[in-house]
Amino acid sequence: MRNISIATIVFAAIALAVAQPARADSWSVDPVHSSLVFKISHLGSSFTWGFLHSPEGKVDWDSADPTKGSIEVTAKLANLSTFNAKRDQHLRSPDFFDAKQFPTLTFKSSSIKAAGDDKFDVTGDLTIRGTTKPVTVTLKKLGTATMQGTTKTGFDGTFTINRLDYGLAFMPQDIGADVEIHVALEVDKK
Amino acid sequence: MKLPEIPITPADLVAGVLCPAVVATAVLGLARLLPFRRREWAGPVAMALGFVAAYPLINGIAPKFPPNNAGDWLFWLALPIGIVAGATACFRLHSIFRSFIAAIVFGATLYLMMQPAVASRTPAEWWTLWAVLVAVLTADFWFADAAIQSDSTITSLIGFACILAGACVLIQMSGSLKYALQGGAVVAALVAAVVVATIGPGRSAVSGGAAMAGIGIVGCLLAVSIEPLFVNVTTTNALLIAAAPILLWAGRFIRLPKAPLWLRAGVRLLLPAIPVLIALAIAGAKAMADLNDSGSGYEGY
């Protein structure tokens, strides 16, 4: 009787372990090696480039099934740079990002779909200037490396938004509506 | 040395000057046609509607409802401010009651416009800032209103419009062309209303409520543009602009009985112009220094 009970418990434990879904690993965005780079038309004659450096956030990534993962990124508009302090100040003013009223830009994924060749269509809510709109970013998962005991990996992709959708509608004659945003994330395994 | 430019396009002039001026002219014209005995409502309502009409044109998009930023709050509050200012003028209340109503109007407007700053300030800081701003705007209202009411000419109204215009230029120099154009729309509506009132329904159609509507909209815009809030207007420059209505009022005590009208008007306009010009000179010097700073050269577009 006792042998049967032990066998039952051992069997149940093995069955539970097998049935347990693989857990997503938690990663945190490394602000030092991550940035958002944007490009926008100026007067229809050239492109102006800018950086939102040092984004923060977390990534839950299940290597066995990446569709169960999630990505959250927050970038402070205080970290905006177009390599011209006066223009940066103007971009942070109520004319554009209104950074004192809306100090951050955030992205929160709602679904991740495999798109082949280590690429994933990450759909989520992008919030800029208090306006939230769904966007889909195709991210490519890059390689993995270990540095001083920390496992690192990265994601890279580009997407385009219409700035008017987010209330950034000032100076429509001078500045283009489409903003191309390049996402470069390095994440550290927790 | 390079001088700073104001990057205003013809489209900005249509949105921020022509449109509100046309709206104000229409409102004043309507006031003349309507069979109402009192027309004091017309001026402040014209200023408010001028702002409301210009706002989406200046911004390039319609304001949000419910609003989530200071500008959109002001858009939705502008017409109520104009109506309260107009009603207060029509009832010809004592100046103490007018000031009390003005304090409530400015307090409620700033309370809502300052909501986005709640997260970045402690409650004590936020409420202190709110109380100081409401007190300054209410004091400014009292002086501006007293100056306009006691003047049988349109000199004080023009002086008041110049102070509001100075506030708008200061906001532009301090970092926000959009807020400046929005305030400028109120100034354009006020000037158009004064001109039309002078040849039409009479000066009182504007003088009764201009101070409450002007300070309620442009004053609140300047208040939320100070450095602790949403733009980079320095406290010193904001206080210099706030001092101008006191000098507009003080101009009445300069008696020049034998002087021609133009000289008396000039003196009344010169006094409030002094702090406004000092504020603009300080902001202009900083803008010029920034422009000529190595590696800058950015002119706002």
Task: Describe the structure concisely.
The complex is a heterodimer of chains A (190) and B (301). By secondary structure, chain A is mainly beta. Chain A has helices at residues 2-19, 85-92, and strands at residues 25-29, 35-42, 46-53, 56-61, 70-76, 80-81, 104-116, 119-128, 131-147, 150-162, 175-189.
What does this structure look like?
The complex is a heterodimer of chains A (190) and B (301). Chain A is mainly beta and 190 residues long. Chain A has helices spanning 2-19, 85-92; strands at 25-29, 35-42, 46-53, 56-61, 70-76, 80-81, 104-116, 119-128, 131-147, 150-162, 175-189. In chain A, strands 1-4-5-7-8-9-10-11 form an eight-stranded antiparallel beta barrel. The mean pLDDT of chain A is 89. Chain B is mostly helical and 301 residues long. In chain B, 72% of the residues lie in helices and 0% in strands. Chain B is built from eleven helices and no strands. Chain B has helices at 10-33, 42-59, 70-91, 95-113, 123-149, 155-173, 177-199, 204-207, 210-223, 235-250, 261-292. The longest helix of chain B has 32 residues, at 261-292. Chain B is globular, with a radius of gyration of 19 Å. The mean pLDDT of chain B is 92. The chains are: A mainly beta (190), B mainly alpha (301). Chain A binds chain B through residues 84-87, 89-90, 93-95, 98, 100-103, 129-131, 164, 167, 169-174, and chain B through 7, 9, 11, 59-61, 64, 68-71, 116-117, 120, 175-179, 229-232, 290-291, 293, 295-298, 300-301.
What are the defining features of this structure?
heterodimer; A: 190 residues; mainly beta; eight-stranded antiparallel beta barrel; 2 helices; elongated; B: 301 residues; mainly alpha; 11 helices; 0% strand
